[in-house]
Structures are given as C-alpha cells and as structure tokens.
Design brief:
Layout (H helix, E strand, L loop, with lengths): L7 E5 L3 E7 L8 E7 L21 H14 L6 H6 L3 H15 L6 H15 L2 H13 L4 H4 L1
Antiparallel strand pairs: 1-2, 2-3
Length: about 150
C-alpha cells in the first residue's frame, strides 16, 4: 500500500524511492522508511515538492523554523524541513519527534546522529549522508569516528 495524505512525504534518490511517514501511534514517535527499491535505470535525485523559502512559510511553519534555529543554535534550516513546511502540522509533529529522539538518553546525540549516517549509507541516500554527517560533526564526531 502506498502511503498518502499529509503524513507521507515522497522521497526519491538514485537507489530507491520511498515515503517518510510520521508515525504518531508509537510511544517513541519514530520516523519510518517504507522503501520500494527501483529496477531499471538509475534516477536523478529530485525534490517532488517546492522547497519553501523563509518568505513563503505559513505562520505555523515559521514558528517551527524558529524553534529549529533556536534548538540547533544555527540560522540554517535544511531542505528536509523546507519540504515538510507545506504541511505545518506534519512539520511540527516531525520536529517534535526528532527533538524527542535526539534528546539526551541512553545514547548521546552524537552517537544517534552517527547512527543516522550509517542508515543513510545503507540506503544510499547522498542527501541524507551529507546532512547527517554535518549534524554528527556539529555534535563532535571526529574524522577517526567517521572512518
């Protein structure tokens, strides 16, 4: 079954296409990938929705972006969030889930970000690899830990 509605965002890379689904029913509120591997010629990575600039954000999405910037202590908001900004409720729910997952716990945030890198490599998602590598480095990952 192909996910649809405001809780699903279609993602495509050169190795797979899939749907990012915000799972609200889970106690942990994790993000799940539902993958469907492509056959045939490789596809170019492309956005399937317009990435909203700060000037195009609805008020609810702008508030989430402000929280992302404050939490991460950075003015940069990456394209993942800009794609989700079309649906402010999903944007907020996803951001709140990520904040919960990345909060200190049994694993520190650097290790969690490094796990994101490993999963991104396994999925062959170059955007995800670059994004999570930058996140892991910002949290203190060294070159030795990366290798």
């Amino acid at each position: 079954r192909v996910p649809s509605g405001p809780r699903a965002v279609q993602c495509r890379t050169d190795r797979f296409s899939g749907y990012l689904i915000a799972n609200r029913s889970s106690a942990v509120r994790v993000l799940l990938w539902s993958l469907s591997f492509q056959t045939g010629p490789a596809r170019q990575a492309m956005a399937t929705v317009k990435l909203l600039s700060d000037d195009e954000l609805p008020a609810e999405a702008r508030a989430v972006f402000d929280d992302i910037r404050a939490t991460r202590k950075s003015d940069f908001v990456n394209n993942f969030w800009r794609a989700l900004a079309h649906d402010p409720k999903t944007l907020r729910r996803t951001w709140e889930s990520i904040k919960e997952v990345m909060a200190p716990g049994a694993l520190d945030p650097k290790v969690k970000e490094m796990l994101y890198v490993a999963v991104s490599v396994a999925h062959g998602c170059s955007y995800c690899i670059h994004s999570h590598t930058a996140g892991a480095r910002a949290k203190g990952m060294t070159d030795a830990e990366y290798q």
